User: What shape does this take?
Amino acid sequence: METGRLLYVAATRAKRRLHLIGHADENKEGTLRVEPASLLARLWPAVEPEWLTAAEKAAPESGSAPAAGAGDSGAPAVPRWRLPGDWVCPEPPAAAGAVCDPPRENREAVVYEWAGDTARAVGTVVHRCLQHIAQTWTDAAAEAAAYEAAIRRMLQREGVPNAQLDEAWGRAREAIERSVRDEQGRWILSSRHADARCEVAVTAAVGGELRRLVVDRTFVDTDGVRWIIDYKTGVHLGGDVEGFLDREQERYRSQLERYAEAFGRLEDRPVRTALYYPLVQGGWREVETSRTP
Assistant: This one.
């Protein structure tokens, strides 16, 4: 049961492609055998015909000698091409620019010095939910309600202790509700924008270094401007909200500058960047960069 669940979870997380790699031995009777305790054994009734077809294509023609390195069964050895021992990966060309990678979870490290691992877990869950909302947007009120039960499970998977679970759940739920009810949040998450994407991974030469960056939300508005928006799930409990946002703007300016530079290498259009704090009243702050029109 547990093996089947593990296989299901692993296979259903694929975004665009799923590659399954397994190993089957040829027994004395010349038939393929899989390890009974392996994940491949669970799939064998469905994949055996394709496996046999592949084995037939790889087998030598009748009467030919076994391939070099073949085992006792006479099955051809799998050819291997190895790099020389002194091979060194070359530096990317100066004009390499930037490359958009498939969505991925890794991102630049964000410091949560005020709350630790629980705050980080809340941020991770909110980012995932907002990504899903942006990709499947229907009705704002329904969207927020649909995530209430899922948020708790996601926080538990992120390792939030039971003693902090209720507070973390409340904060994540509030961040999502405010995002779908706030006019600015709805504009950010709208699917009507051109080239709207979430969790976009970009590899680019930025500041003389090859960097891997992940952008929370990006799209092109009706004026042809590329927007790059970074979600923040921090809170501000005191007064002087404007002062708080001013400080946050300076804190994250260099990060947004790197995002703008990376996208500037991908396309020729104006770029604007902003921070969005759904848990802060008026928590939208555009951040000027060298590419701001």
